[in-house]
Amino acid sequence: MEKNEKVLSFKSYFESIARTKKVWVWLIGLVNQKKWRGLMWWRYGTILFTMAVELAEPGVVGIIIQDIATGRTDRLIYLFSAIVVLEIVGRVARWKSTIAHEWIWSINTESFAVGMTKRFFEKSQSQHKEESDLNHESLDKTRDKAQDLMTGKSTDMFETICLMVMALVYLTFLSLTAGIAMFVIAVIHIMWSAYNNWRAEVVCEEIDNDFRALNRYLAARWQNVERVTTSAKREREIRIIAERSREICGRDRAFWLWENGSSTLREGITSLWVITVFALMVHGVILSGGKEAGLLFPIWIWTSAIRGNLWRFGWLEREIRKHMPRIRATMSVLEKPTHVSDSPTATDLVPNGGVKLAFERITHSYPKGEPVLRDVSFEVGKGEIVALVGPSGSGKSTLEALAMRFMDPDSGRIVVNGQDLREIKVDSWMRAVGFIPQHSQILDGTVRDNLLYGLHEEELAGKDWEAELQNLLAKLRIDFGKRPVGENPLDIVVGRDGVKLSGGQAQRLMIGAAVLKKPRFMIIDEATSSLDSTTEKAVLLGLDELLKGVGTLVIAHRLSTVRRANKIVVLSGGKIESVANSFRELHDQSPTFRRMADDQDLEIE
């Protein structure tokens, strides 16, 4: 608690306001368009008008009471007509406001989805792996909070402020003393609420972080219950979870007990203040002989409106503050410059023909780490199959990422048909490359949807793909076991992340999708690890036939999968240890290859 007390200062409070302002500016930038701005002005204008109309009604009612008390009845019909008119006008204005609200909600929904997705897609794949907040779960939570802020909480806050200001203006018009008294308590209440909310943000940030860590711990144990059970750790895990939960909940409870006590005291003082102001007004009416007794009704309504909305103002400020850390974290990562982008002089890859890929003196390291690649040079010729092998951590995956241009090397260059890869537009290179990742990336939808995903509109238009897809299924052994008679396998729904497929089925589906692009160059990362040996052999034969003449870089962990390679490059410690055209040559030249071959009981022919 001592650390948090040091943070609680006027300077840090205003720094927090500045950070919050940046978030609002960023969110407005995502949705800022002419129609949206017009709708926001209309929405806030109608809210302001509605509040003025609704708060005017108690004043008219007060005049009616006053007239009845004094025996004046000549203008009652006009006063009642005024109430009816105010009610109708207020309802129409609120209706118009809700129409604007629905339009704003739609624009915000579309703008947040498009704006965040655009920034998300712009980031390099290396950033997607490095940044903890650059993932679909974080974006989904941020989008929901942003929508709530921009469509809900901001409007609620404006309406609350309008109610308080209007009520204060009307009250001051009737009684300057009452207006000044309510203004004083409003300032005190708002400052008190601001302090409590700021304290909640500071104190609870650490508590929230601890709760999230506990939730991750729980999720890991629930998802891996088999390991917990087979390690005889059930009782230990329950004890740890109980201790951590008790400690975090204790700190959370202590703070909120303090906050509830402070809020109760604040609300009690405000209520007593309002009652006192009203009592003094009643006393004044009594002293005047009760001539203005009717005005007590609007005074009570307006003072109560100020009191109620002071509480609402504090609650809304707290809710807005709760949303800020999540949005601020996402904003920070989405606005970072991408690691990989097209240079001003970048051009499209020359269309058609094969691709020759050369690594020239590549050196690369990750932040705060030693180089994982050191002066690596080799090439993959047109139509050539080159395999990269080596122990874990030797740099195979880094070379794959560099070849895909998920990142750029620290030094050296990658050359495609004589052109530096950095001078080729990223999208142009992606359209030329087929990529089969080690871990399948299946999209929700049908088998057909996933196979055709890599093709572009002009490739899909005007062509019946059915026969080619069925042929692909047969060549790559993409089958789905038993299914209803007559069901087209291409129409099978695979589920989110391919949940309805086995690991082998998902891998074959990814292979089929990559092949269907008719790539000019192929990068394969252990694409058959989930297949049995018989199916693997058939799939590899199918791949050889379908990719005939296509240059291929294969990242291999199992040596048996690369016997057909024209060239094998052995990496060790980020350097090339050996390059050969056969297992026999490598076995004679490379200690690393011999160890791997012995570990895998590989037969050297």
From TrEMBL:
Signal peptide interval: none
PROSITE patterns (UniProt xref): ABC_TRANSPORTER_1, ABC_TRANSPORTER_2
Alphabetic keyword roster: ATP-binding, Membrane, Nucleotide-binding, Transmembrane, Transmembrane helix
Organism domain of life: Bacteria
The name this protein goes by in its record: ABC transporter related protein
Keyword ATP-binding applies: yes
InterPro entries in the record: AAA+_ATPase, ABC1_TM_sf, ABC_transporter-like_ATP-bd, ABC_transporter-like_CS, P-loop_NTPase, Type_1_exporter
MF-aspect GO terms: ATP binding; ATP hydrolysis activity; ATPase-coupled lipid transmembrane transporter activity
Subcellular localization(s) per the UniProt record: Cell membrane
Family matches, as SMART domains: AAA
Cellular component terms per the entry's GO annotation: plasma membrane
